[in-house]
Amino acid sequence: MTGSLVQWLRDNLGLISSADEIEALAKTVDDNGGAYFVPAFSGLFAPYWRSDARGALVGLTRFVNKGHIARAALEATAFQTREVIDAVNADSGVPLTEIKVDGGMIANNLLMQFQADILGVPVIRPVVAETTALGAAYAAGLAVGFWSGLDELREHWQEDSRWTPKMTDQERDRQLRNWKKAVTKTFGWVDEDVL
Predict the structure, then answer these.
(1) 29-51: b or e for each residue (b if 16 or more CB lie within 10 Å)?
(2) Are 110 and 77 in contact (CB under 8 A)?
């Protein structure tokens, strides 16, 4: 939902004029100023599965400005990813040791560092950012015999950048605790008779 959240900040609020401006705006502040943005525009998906939830921006004070809101929007991605990864780790019993990312948001270095910080593991950006399209091309090539096998495909993957966690465990725990508190504020906004 982060791409949608950034579009919402651009199109509905006019906070930025293009999506790539979000990082520069978020960098105007050192942290989120205590603001947390939960983008539950259509409910909360994994791991909550709450169709009655709606988006919320919480923790606002007179100190919070548009830089803090931009930062909170970016951080929402990392928090949501952390919660899904926690669920995967619990179900699989295999803890994550690093994460390889793809998609448009990986161009945002501030987000990638925060993602590493909140996950507590390295975040790795590949040279080719759109791996979904690349995967489809690889699958087609495998199907027609263009590629010899998966080992050949693995040789094509290249690392572009890597971020390692810099946040202390205590700060990570505090941030996650506040995020979870913010998430609970989104529950129950849609009445059952409206669903």
Answers:
(1) beebbebbbbbbeebbeeebebe
(2) no
Instruction: Looking at 121-184, list the stretches that DSSP marks H as alpha helix, in order from N- to C-terminal side.
Output: 131-143, 150-156, 169-184
Say what the pTM is. 0.89
Task: Specify the 3-state DSSP secondary structure of 193.
Answer: coil
Q: What are phi and psi of 163, to 5 degrees?
A: -120, 135
Task: Determine the 3-state secondary structure of 126 from DSSP.
Answer: strand
Residues 77-130: tens digit of each pLDDT: 999 999 999 999 999 999 999 999 988 899 999 999 999 999 999 999 999 888
Query: How far apart, in Å, do the first and last CA atoms of the chain sit?
Result: 21
Helices 169-184 & 66-92 angle (0-180, nearest 10): 100
Calculate the CA dihedral of residues 137, 139, 144, 147 and round it to 10 degrees: 80
Q: How many CA atoms lie within 13 A of 124 on its CB side?
A: 10
Q: What span, in angstroms and rounded, lies between the C-alpha atoms of 104 and 130?
A: 7
Query: What is the three-class DSSP state of 159?
Result: strand
Q: Which two tokens stand for residue 72?
A: 């909170």
